[in-house]
Amino acid sequence: AALQAEIRAYMAQTQAAGVMALKNGEVVFEDYGLGFGPTGRWTSFSVAKSFTSTLLGAAIADGAIASVDTPVTEIIPALAGTAYDGVSVGQIASMTSGVAWNEDYTDPDSDVAKMLAVTPVAGESQAVTYARSLEREAPAGEKWVYKTLETNLLGLIVEQATGQSLAAYAAAKIVEPAGFEGGLFWMQDLTGGNIGGCCLSLRLADYARMGQFALEGGDGVVPDGWFAEAGSPHVDFGNGYGYGYQWWTYPGDMYGAQGIFGQAITIVPEENLVVAVVSNWKTATSAPARDGFRALVGSIREAAAEDRQAMVEAALAA
User: What's the pTM?
Assistant: First the structure.
């Protein structure tokens, strides 16, 4: 009861619309706020990035992309002669391309604010059009900078390689095998392409199911060990924090997806635990709310560990 009260207090403090926790694939907590409910849809923002990375894994498993070492220009020849020359698919996935970028959501002149407003060029993705304007600031593989454009490019790489839209490919490679309840809608840019770096519309239960799909390894969809690789720190920020292939890594061998305004899926492999939240924060980013969610996951993890200990003790006493 104390843990349930802690979760509900966090929800009230951070304007959360829903929290769901899965233990061993079973729902152990589910609650809603802000008039939201089980059949409602919530926009993911950057949680979509981890879906796009999963589709990269699927495209590699399908043989449509040779490996994460494949040069980006091999799949998108239109990027030849740009700052993306010499950058690999894996460097895009880990955001270590070395291309300069400004992701300040409060700056109307930032790259992230301007990238989808760039005038569409016939027959070309807006991601490529904007990428042409960028410059290199570091050698490929040496510097990490968070760039939504790169996930948009990653989505385009998957589309070009597979010949399918991200939404169609996701329907076959995530929605169906993960057993989503409510399907998935994916935002489009001005040229009609799905935006790899943002904006899925899905139910809270399906945020959680995505975490469960990753936890179970995505068997038959992605290469063996894909999520262990994608959810491990290719970039180390220190103190247990890092960045993998479009997944954030956290202390305690946890990893997850997160998006602005308070969306997150956190995966705790050790406890077979997934916790998902959707929110309506007052600001795009909030360190206290994000830290609060990690603390909440810590409390749920602790309760799960105690449960496991109690089960072991009961088994030994039998």
Answer: 0.97
